[in-house]
Design a protein that fits this description.
about 180 residues, about 75% helix, mainly alpha, 5 helices
């Protein structure tokens, strides 16, 4: 197999993973995480087409699909992209053999991203846990099956971020070897 073919194969694996993982996780975020956010913060139940943004409201008012979306869906998608962005960045900072020259020290950068990643993943896992508890996985707020599911969910997100990084690094490797 030529280097060009290896690069094309690495790119197709990378983009296939990106699309498939984001679709599957998007469904989870739209259903469970947005429900947890909605229940924890009732103000997020505000429908998007009723928001005080005239252009958006007018554009979405005529479409039946947008009548179902609320602010919790927007925040859930922000969690999805925030978790992936921060955790891919954290994993790259901690696992990369290359030291990137920057005005910040490597240690400062690593701790900044780790702190941001832990906070956003923690908030995301709280929304997931709360949504799972309220959707019927248990009677009370302290629920062992929901807690185990949430730990598995958070771990799965980090593993998905690692797979994304690994595939991206393979594309970069094949690109550099193509020269």
């Amino acid at each position: 197999m030529t280097t060009q073919q290896k690069l094309a194969q690495a790119r197709s694996k990378y983009w296939g993973w990106q699309v498939a993982s984001k679709i599957i996780l998007g469904i989870i975020y739209l259903s469970v995480v947005s429900e947890g956010l909605r229940l924890a913060f009732p103000v997020l139940s505000l429908k998007i087409h009723k928001m005080p943004v005239p252009v958006v409201a007018a554009w979405m008012a005529g479409d039946e699909v947008f009548h179902r979306f609320d602010a919790a869906h927007i925040i859930a998608f922000l969690f999805l992209f925030g978790v992936f962005f921060t955790w891919v960045r954290i994993l790259r900072e901690w696992l990369s053999p290359h030291e990137v020259q920057d005005i910040w020290s490597v240690k400062q950068r690593r701790w900044l991203w780790a702190t941001a990643g832990i906070i956003i993943l923690g908030a995301d896992c709280f929304a997931f846990y709360y949504g799972v508890c309220m959707l019927g996985w248990g009677d009370g707020f302290l629920n062992i099956p929901a807690l185990i599911g949430t730990v598995a969910y958070g771990t799965g997100l980090i593993i998905c971020a690692f797979i994304s990084l690994d595939l991206a690094m393979r594309v970069l490797y094949h690109k550099e070897n193509d020269r």
